[in-house]
Amino acid sequence: MAGLERLKRRLVSEVVRENVETLHGLPFRPLPPSRTRRVRLGLLRGLSLVAAPTLLFLAVSALSTDRAERAGIAPRAALSGPTTLPAPRAISPAAFPLAVRKIVVDPGHGGTDPGAPASGGLWEKDITLDVAQRLRMLLGEAGFDVVMTRERDETVSLRERAQLANFQRGDLFVSIHFNSLPTRSYRGIETYHLGPTADPQVERLAGAENRASGYSLADFRRLLEGVYVHVRQTESKQLAEAVHQGLVETLVKGNPAIRDSGVKPAPFLVLVATEMPGILAEVSYLSNDEDARLLKDPAYRQEIARALFQGIRAYADARSRPGGQGSV
Amino acid sequence: MTKKNEALRVGIDLGTSRSSISASSGARHVVESYVGWPVDTVARKVVKKSILFGREALDNRSMLELHRPLERGLIKEGSEKDEAAVRELLRHLISLVGGADDSRVFAVVGVPAEALRVSRQHLRNAVKGIADALMIVSEPFAVAYGMDALLHTMIVDIGAGTTDFCVMNGRYPTEDEQRTLTHAGDWLDEQLATMVRTRQPDAQFSIHMVREWKERWGFVGEPKGPVVVTVQVAGKPTPLDITAEMRRACEALLPPIAETMLDLLARVEPEYQERVRNNVILAGGGSQIPGLGDALEKMLLDVGGGKVRTVDDPVFAGSNGSLALALDASDADWEQLPS
Ligand SMILES: [Zn+2]
Q: Please, which residues have CB within 8 angstroms of residue A7's CB and are 6 or more apart in sequence?
């Protein structure tokens, strides 16, 4: 029993140390990943008699969790460490040659935050939700796991959205929005990934979309510090390019007046705070009468969902192709 | 500082469904994890209180802004009311064991593993000031500690919002030794509600009723008898046999739990895997579903067999474990952890 007492003493001191570290705002100590990999391979060998499907599932789920965990280390450390931030480290995307399985779909706005007004009593929040539900269906049919940040007309802060995405350990984060401009004639499609911007137009938009965040300015600065050199930026840009291409091909085809405004970096809060590659698509302009008219048509909203879906699938296919490191 | 030796030590299990407290004085209490504030002055006059807890809050919910902290296993960040709900609930629990008076209180609070992972800093801030000194630990770890199950053991804590797993390898579990699933009590309730609604679209019932059905009649495997509940159909109380639905809903928990158990087992050093398989402990409210442990044992047969046992006292297993930690920590340890 002396052994048990010793063990308990050690555990208590570990618990105390961990709590003291939290109290002083220190980050987590991440695990060395090599040990688990060795052990797991050992077990997989030992389990060769197990029915093949179980084994396969075990291998797949172990790998994907591993990926999520490893990809999550850097931002999490940044999140929990307001006083001593570790120096950000670039991680090669080649370290994660794994499939995309779980997609977090984020219908912009909702509840008391209606977003931009559309004509005919509609709001941005209604259209984002409708498109998101259609997208969910398409992704689900194609075998992806889908997590929605909201399922109905409810208020969900950006902070909660990001938290849910991180909690669910999504592989990709796709936020759906519709833009609005005083220049009502303007029509265009923009797809954003996380990054700094010097464009005042983009800053204005980020400001509008970042309202109702639940974050303080200090939180925001802290989040930003750890983030820009991370692998997510590259990954997110590739995802943005794939989705944007899908949107442009589908929507501009029938409506040549819609301008391809390109893929741009912007500091949207939901993209900063999520731990996975993510994008924010401003699919079209509610301030434009023609776009607003089109958006009232369910068939058009289905086209948008399909365009988003095709972009996501193109990205996912490129990620899981052997040797294909995300060149979409 | 003169009364240091008399500090009351308490262990708290802050659960998504129920929260319990065990104190060094021997007092123990459990409340449902609901906190409610009257919606307006009229409501306040009716309920005659400025804040209500547990069953009382639930019973008066039409007059309250009702909060269930740690729903989905997380503290809803950015929501001041939810943070206040966590704080008030803890304060209430401590007052139940007589800790609000003059003695100092040292508290160990067990929370769902994922809440700790995602928002430990935030949790710490949210519970500031509820005790004189405070430690936060993951709930399955507290259960393991309380049972001296510290070596080659797997804890599966089936709560309301989350099912938490942890493998004890003689150290404070790392992230790699823990998992959290949202397949838990609430999820089961939703499955069951959907199935019943599909069977009888006109039936009227609330999710709280579904939860009570599950707690009374939930089962895995062969039914011991029919499960017949009473629902309102067209305003009339109507009996409804939900035996098949109950079984399907409860058994839906099995695959995700078994998969996660296997995934965690795969990470244990091969020479210890058999010992861990034979040392699986089910805790939390969900562990009370008859037949669940047997079904999981059956699933372990695929990987060489194992033993699954259920904690004796699911309501207090977590808070007792936290109390054990609170008692084992020295005054010097507590000095470092002002709340
Ligand atoms: Zn928007």
A: B150, B151, B170
The alpha-carbon gap from A107 to the nearest alpha carbon of chain B, in Å, equals 19
DSSP strand pairing (B163-169 vs A102-107): unpaired
Q: Which residues of B236-255 are buried (b: 16+ CB within 10 A; e: fewer)?
A: eeeebebeebbbebbbbbbe
Let me know if B185 is exposed, middle or buried by CB neighbors in 10 A (0-12, 13-18, 19+). buried
Residue of B152, B182, B140 lying closest to B307 (CA atoms): B152
B283-308 pLDDT, tens digit each: 998 999 999 999 999 999 988 899 99
CA distance A280 to A176: 6
Inter-chain touch B266–A157, beta carbons under 8 Å: no
pTM of the model: 0.57
CA of A107 to the centre of ligand 1 (A): 9
Q: How far, in Å, CA of A86 to CA of B11, rounded?
A: 34
Helix, strand or coil, per DSSP, at residue B14? strand
Cβ contacts of A213 on chain B, cutoff 8 Å: 78
Q: What DSSP designation does B138 have?
A: E
Measure A143 CA to ligand 1 centroid, in angstroms.
28
pLDDT tens string for chain A (328 positions)?
678 888 999 999 999 988 888 777 654 443 333 333 333 333 333 333 233 333 223 233 333 333 333 333 333 333 333 333 333 333 333 333 347 888 999 999 998 888 888 767 778 999 999 999 999 999 988 888 899 999 888 888 888 888 888 888 888 999 999 988 877 788 888 898 877 676 777 777 777 777 666 555 555 555 555 554 455 677 888 999 999 999 998 888 878 888 888 898 887 877 877 888 899 999 988 888 888 888 888 899 999 999 999 999 999 988 766 544 444 4
pLDDT reading at B3 higher than 60: no
Q: Is A16 on the interface with B (CB under 8 A)?
A: yes
Question: Rounded distance, CA B288 to CA B185, Å?
Answer: 11
Work out the end-to-end distance of chain A between its first and last CA atoms, rounded to an integer number of angstroms: 60
Distance CA B266, CA B108 (A): 31
B54 Ramachandran zone, left/alpha/beta (phi>0; psi -120 to 50): left
d(CA A88, CA A78): 9
Note whether B237 and B268 are within 8 A (CB).
no
Residues A169 and A321: their CA atoms lie apart, in Å, by 22
- Token code pair at residue A248: 């442009």
| Strands laid side by side in the B228-233 sheet | B203-204, B228-233, B236-241
ipTM: 0.88
Q: Indicate the residue type of A137.
A: M
Q: Smallest CA–CA separation between A216 and chain B, in Å?
A: 9
Tell me how long chain A is. 328
Residue of chain B minimizing CA distance to A213:
B78
Burial of A180 per CB tally in 10 Å (0-12, 13-18, 19+): buried
Contact (CB, 8 A) for B320 and B11: yes
Q: Which residue of A has its CA nearest to B125?
A: A23
